[in-house]
Amino acid sequence: MFDRRLIKNFDWGLIMLILVICSIGLVILYSALSASVLSLENGPGEVHILFKKQMIWMGAGFIIMMIIMMIDFRDLDKLNLFIYALCIGLLISVLFFGKIGGGSRRWLALGFVRVQPSELMKIALIISLASVYATSVSKEGLNFRKLIKPSILCMIPFFLIVNQPDLGSGLLLLLIAGSITLFVKVERKVLLTFSGISLAATPLVWFTLKDYQKYRILTFLNPDRDPLGAGYHIIQSKIAIGSGMLTGKGFLKGTQNALSFLPEQHTDFIVSVLSEEWGLVGCSILLILYFVLLFWGLNIAYNCRNMFGSILAFGVTTMIFWQIFINIGMVMGLMPVVGVPLPLVSYGGSSVITNMMGFGILLNISMRNFSSN
After folding, report:
1. Do the beta carbons of residue 73 and residue 369 sit within 8 Å?
2. Is the CA virtual torsion 297, 10, 344, 163 positive or negative?
3. Model pLDDT for residues 212-241, shown as the tens digit of each residue
4. Structural domain tally of the chain?
5. Looking at the DSSP assignment, which residues form a beta bridge with residue 108?
């Protein structure tokens, strides 16, 4: 029987916050895509096609969010192995049947849509880690033995994703997993040991990177070493951000965007479009909304009386945080360009669906705090 308390506890605030950010994202995206009309490589109607596609993805995302919201989040604990295995299967399928784009094999063609399994893997990993940690939390913290299974769950998708190659999504999985692990708490000796191993392994990791990945890191450290090549993205992004100054040049009036100086302006560098057209004021408004969203997610995690739900909410919030942090860091030249989209703003169907699934989980937990145990 449907519990009427679910309606009473419906989180209208979070829904409104998501709608506002989505609306802002569509406005910015429309401006970013308008530059493609002037491009010789694209037809004049492509801006409308991509914009409509994004609206369709957002509509589909809201439907999926509502479906997930209605399923008791505790059932995800029972389905965690199935969800994890399904996403691992999709990642393996990419190796054999994936579509190549931009030098990477990351997408699966499923009928008339393309899906990026590495995006869906974020949710699967969060659910799996929450399920494992919920039964192994202790006041002293996790020891080495209790970290074996979570490490395996994390490293399998990491290597599959890096092999595509997609270093950005792979590192994002590690950051999410690491954040959840610290949230659950680990023994001090475990933390010190892993920190030491990470520092010692850093030089070894360098030799495992592909040449273009090494070049991205070197260019990040010094963009001027290749201003017309690998450093072009960062340099043009900084110009766009700086030229926006306090209030920006106005909607559709950004010259860096309109003249197509900004590469990937509708995906990775969409914040540069926002900065140029709306300036520091526009960026601050978006950042404040993101801050409220993250605070809302952490509050849901804190108030949840179910350990699985608490870890799950924290994991989803962490996923949103790291995407925001890395994307904004990229466009400002504070981090290497690794291709991480900005949640609900950058163009991309898989990213929209994944984030909406995460918000559906947050709404689910928020609605059921009265019955969590």
Report:
1. no
2. positive
3. 667 667 666 666 665 655 566 677 777 778
4. 1
5. 115
**pTM of the shown model:** 0.88
What are 146-200's pLDDT values in tens digits? 889 999 999 999 999 988 878 888 889 999 999 999 999 888 888 888 788 777 7
> What pLDDT score was predicted for residue 38?
44
What does the alpha-carbon distance between residue 262 and residue 260 come to, in Å, rounded to a whole number? 5
Per-residue pLDDT band at 39 (split at 50, 70, 90): very low
As a three-state string, the secondary structure of the chain is CCCCHHHHCCCHHHHHHHHHHHHHHHHHHHHHHHHHHCCCCCCCCHHHHHHHHHHHHHHHHHHHHHHHHHCCCHHHHHCHHHHHHHHHHHHHHHHHHCEEECCEEEEEEECCEEECHHHHHHHHHHHHHHHHHHCCCCCCCECCHHHHHHHHHHHHHHHHHHCCCCHHHHHHHHHHHHHHHHHHCECHHHHHHHHHHHHHHHHHHHHHCCHHHHHHHHHHHCHHHCCCCCCHHHHHHHHHHHHHCCCCCCCCCCHHHHCCCCCCCCCCCHHHHHHHHHHHHHHHHHHHHHHHHHHHHHHHHHHCCCHHHHHHHHHHHHHHHHHHHHHHHHHCCCCCCCCCCCCCCCCCHHHHHHHHHHHHHHHHHHHCHHHCC
Parent domain of 211:
5-371
